[in-house]
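User: Exodeoxyribonuclease 7 large subunit. Structure?
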Amino acid sequence: MDSPDARHVYTVSDLNQTVRGLLEQALPLVWVEGEISNLARPRSGHLYFTLKDPDAQVRCALFRNRAMRLRTTPANGDQVRLRARIGLYAPRGEYQLIAEHLEPAGDGALQRAFAELKARLEREGLFDPACKQALPSLPRRIGVITSPTGAAIRDIVSVLRRRFPALPILIYPVAVQGAQATPAIVEAIHRADQRQEVDALIVGRGGGSLEDLQAFNDEAVARAIHACSLPTVSAVGHEVDVTIADLVADERAATPSAAAERLSPDGEALGRRVQQQQARLSKGLSRVLGERRERIHRLTRRLNAQHPGRRLRDRAQRLDELDQRLGRAVRVRMAERARHVERVHQRLQAQNPTPRIQRLSDTTDQLARRLDRGVRELITRKRTRVEAQARTLDSLSPLGTLARGYAIIQPRDGQAVIHRATDVAVGDPIRARLREGTLIARVEDHDEGS
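Assistant: Predicted structure:
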């Protein structure tokens, strides 16, 4: 029995990690087919489900980045085929499949996926006739996206050689079935659209089962055809085969041969048409040449009659005169312009606000000084005049007379001035206004003399 120190003891986590490594190394990538059950869709976007058959089951996980690429939505009870890696969920010690790709298994599932994709793309408007382009009536070059070794390209080349051998074709070789077919077809469509080296595209292949035609029922191919700016003809399978690519393309051909006939003109009919056009062109040219020849003869006669050499000399002399007149006119005009510019310059100088402002400022100062002097002189004159008028007023004022010893005699009860002795009677009371004060008296007697 080994001693405790000689034993290698795993923790549960270490054991699960070791087992997971062994499983991943032994079976790096497998395809597994079975029925989906216990499907769970958490908010994370990952899918968790059980894949089972009548005798066994295994847990599976399809993470969000892979689930977003699915063409169909899986459901419980679906028979599917997985491409997956073997893994082990360490927290529970359960082995599981980490799915990288999921597709329906069997023709029934493919048909259901076809119907679902068709309905969804139709709702989005990818089949709308308003989105489809007209095919060119006489393309300069045709592009063909197909297998370079398949029957489809042979049929297309055969039809073009028969109908219009001069029409060149450019082949974009791709796989038309298998896992690499879809990305190859999509990349070829994008490349043709970017290069713009052809006038129309044929996308197609020969007939086959629904599984063989799966690349042309792929959503990526459908969207690439819809986004392509080149007019596109889909020619997939036989006449009874209808694919998503047929519905999205600008036009559907029942077979690759029919697509070649649709895009290539009929060489014999075109030749006959060219001959007819040549005959009409020859006849028209003969008529036009005859008319031009007759017109040249008429113009020649007129030219000879009008002595073109003399007219040329006259025209040359007239040209010299006009040149001299033009020179003189230009010089006169330039001189007038120069004078006008000088006048404008002088006017501008005359209207220069700086001297005017200075003059106005000097005038303002002068006016201010004159106003100040005038106000002082006016005040002096007014003061002298007032003093003179005051003296005159004072000399005329009765107060001045009173100051010299005179008095103003009035009746005691009246305002009138007594000028004559006869204006009062003896015994009447009177009032005598002196320079200072008033006397009340009575008339004792009066003398009528002076």
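The two ends are 188 Å apart (CA to CA). Residues 175 and 181 are 5 Å apart (CA to CA).
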